[in-house]
Amino acid sequence: MALSLIPPLTDGPISYQAIYQPAQTGSFHNNNMAALCRGRHRWKRTNCLHVLTRNLSGIYDYDLVVIGGGSGGLACSKEAARLGQKAAVLDYVEPSVKGTKWGLGGTCVNVGCIPKKLMHQAALLGTAVKDARKYGWQISGPICHDWATMAEAIQNHVRSLNWGHRVQLQDKKVKYLNVKGSLVDEHTVRGLTKAGKEMILTAKNIVIATGGRPNYPIGIPGAKEHGITSDDIFWLKKEMVLSSTRRGSDVALECAGFLTGIGLDTTVMVRSIALRGFDQQMAGLITDYMATYGTKFLWKSVPKSVDKLSSGALQVTWTDTRTGDEHKDTYDSVLWAVGRAPETKALGLDQLGVRLKKETGKILLGSDESTSVPNIFAFGDIGEGRPELTPTAVKAGKLLARRLAGLSAELMNYDNVPTTVFTPLEYACVGLSEEDAEERHGKDGIEVYHAFYKPLEFIVAERDASQCYLKVVCARGGEQKILGLHFTGPNAGEVAQGFAMGFQCGATYSHLLQTVGIHPTCAEEVVKVNITKRSGLDPAVTGC
Ligand code: FAD
Ligand code: NDP
C-alpha cells in the first residue's frame, strides 16, 4: 500500500485529503507487456491475460483508456486523472461522406449542440432585429444575413474549443492520442494513426465513448451523392441558398428552424410525426409556429430520389403516402436528418463478445455502464437506451470514473432528464409526456394543468403568441406529484433547468403553488398555472 493524495469527489475546487490506496500504475515493463498482449497466438494471449488479472494495477500502461474524446470521453478521462488515475483518451474523427473533418471534442462541440445553438442564436437575432423596429430602432433597408460571416465566427469558436480541450487534457495529465482505437482484449487497445502507424496500450479498465454519426437513407438514388448531413452543415463556408431538410425530428426541425430564421427558403419532409417520443401536443405547437414563420412542411411524405439537373439544382422526387401521388421540386441543398448510427464499426466488439442490441447496433449496458465483457465499459450515445444528450454523457462519464477509481458507488440516474429542442419557438421538458403519463397512470389518474400565455416581449413587437404554452402533468389526488413539465417559449431551456431540480426533489403541484414567481418573466407562468384540462375552461392567461 502507498500513501497518495486523492482529491475529494466534488466538482468544486480541489482540496486534498490523504487516503490509502494500492500503488498506482507503474510503467516498468510496459513494452514487454504490450508485446505479450499483441499476442499472435490465442494461447499466448490467454496466458498474458492470466498474468494481467493476477497482477492488476502496477502492470498496465494505464488505469483507464477511454476510446472517444467527445462530451462523455473527455469528462470521464479528466475525472479519472483528477482522482489520481493514469488515464489516456483516444479520439479520431473519420471525415464525413462529404469529407468534412473537425477537431477534438466530439459531436457536441463540432457538429452538434454548440454550432447548432449559435446558428439558432443567429436566427433569433434576425427576429429581434425585426422586433427592434417596434421598439423604436431605426433600421433602414432590408435586413439580410451573410452566411460566410456567421460560419466563420462559429467555426473559429469551435476551433478555440478544440484547442481548449487539448490544453485541458494536458493540464490535467490525461494522455491524448489522435488515433483510431479498437479492442484487442479486455485490457488491450490498439491505436492506429492517420498515417497507419500502430500502437498498443494496456489498461486495467477500458471505456468506450465513441458516440454516433448521422445516417443516410438506404435505397434512395442520389441520397449520398447529393445530400449532406449535420456533420457538414455547420462547416459549410458558403450559404445554402434554398434548402430541403429531410424528415422531422430534433436535428431536422432545429436545422430547418435556423435556416428559415436566417432567411432561407426551407422545407421539411416528414415521414410520420414530428419529434417522436416527445409530447405530441407540444410537437404540434412547435411545427405550427415554424409554419407560421415560413418553414414549409411536406407531411406524410417519403423521398424517392435526388437528381442533379444541368442547372446544378437538385430535383427531389417524393411520394405522398396519404394519396400515393408522386411529386417533384428543385432545391439547392438536401440535408438528411434521419437519425444516427452508433460508431462501433472500427472497435472489433464482436471478436470480444461485447453484446449489442441487434435493432440499434448500440452496446447493451448494465446500470453501472458495464458491458458483457469484464473491464470494458461504455456510455453516452453508444449505449443502448441512454439519452443522446451531452449532459447525460458528461455526468455518466464522471460517475463511471469515480466508480472505477474505487471511490464511489453512485450510479447515473437517467430518470427525469430535462431537455430542450432549440426550434424558433423553443421547447423544453422534463419528465413524462402527457401520453406516457396517461399510459402509465390512466386518463383518470392524471391531472393536467395548462396555460396559453403571452411573453411580454412578444406583445410590444406584435408577435403571434398562439403557440406559447405550458402544461404541468400531475398524478391525480393527494399532493399531486408532478410527472411531467412542458414549456414552449423564449429561453425555454433556461426556464426548465430550475424546475428540473424540483423533479429530483419529488416536487408536487402543492410545491408549485407555494413557489413565488419572478415578475415579469415567462417562467412565472409555470408557478401560476391553475386551469385543468379536465375543467374545459379557457387556459388563456389574461392580464398581468
Ligand atoms: P460524441 O460526442 O459523439 O464523441 C465520440 C467521439 O469518439 C467522437 O469524437 C468520434 O470521432 C470519436 N470516435 C469514434 N470512434 C472512434 C474510435 N474508434 N477511436 C477513437 N475515437 C473514436 N445534446 C444536447 O444535450 N443538447 C443539444 O442541444 C444537442 N444538440 C445536438 C445537435 C445535433 C445536430 C446533434 C447531432 C446532436 C446534438 N446533441 C445535443 C447530442 C449530443 O451532441 C450527443 O449526445 C453527445 O455529443 C454524445 O457524446 P458522446 O461522448 O457519447 O459521443
Ligand atoms: P431521431 O432519431 O430523433 O429522428 C430521426 C427522424 O428521421 C425521425 O423523424 C424518423 O421518422 C426519420 N427517419 C429515420 N429513418 C428513416 C427512414 N429510413 N425513412 C424515413 N424517415 C426516417 O434523429 P435525429 O438525428 O433528429 O436526432 C438524434 C438524437 O440526437 C436525438 O434523439 C436527440 O437525443 C439528439 N439531439 C438532441 C438535440 C437537443 O437536445 N436539442 C438536438 C438534436 C439532436 P419516424 O419518426 O417516422 O421514425
Automatic annotation (TrEMBL):
Cofactor(s) listed in the protein's UniProt record: FAD
Coiled-coil features, chain-numbered ranges: none
Keyword Disulfide bond: yes
Protein's UniProt name: thioredoxin-disulfide reductase (NADPH)
GO cellular component: cytosol; mitochondrion
GO biological process assignments: cell redox homeostasis; cellular response to oxidative stress; glutathione metabolic process
Keywords on record: Disulfide bond, FAD, Flavoprotein, NADP, Oxidoreductase, Redox-active center, Selenocysteine
PANTHER family in the record: GLUTATHIONE REDUCTASE, THIOREDOXIN-DISULFIDE REDUCTASE
Pfam families documented for this protein: Pyr_redox_2, Pyr_redox_dim
SUPFAM superfamilies (UniProt xref): FAD/NAD(P)-binding domain (SSF51905), FAD/NAD-linked reductases, dimerisation (C-terminal) domain (SSF55424)
Family note: Belongs to the class-I pyridine nucleotide-disulfide oxidoreductase family.
Ranges where the Pyridine nucleotide-disulphide oxidoreductase dimerisation domain occurs: 417-528
Signal peptide limits: none
This enzyme's EC code(s): 1.8.1.9
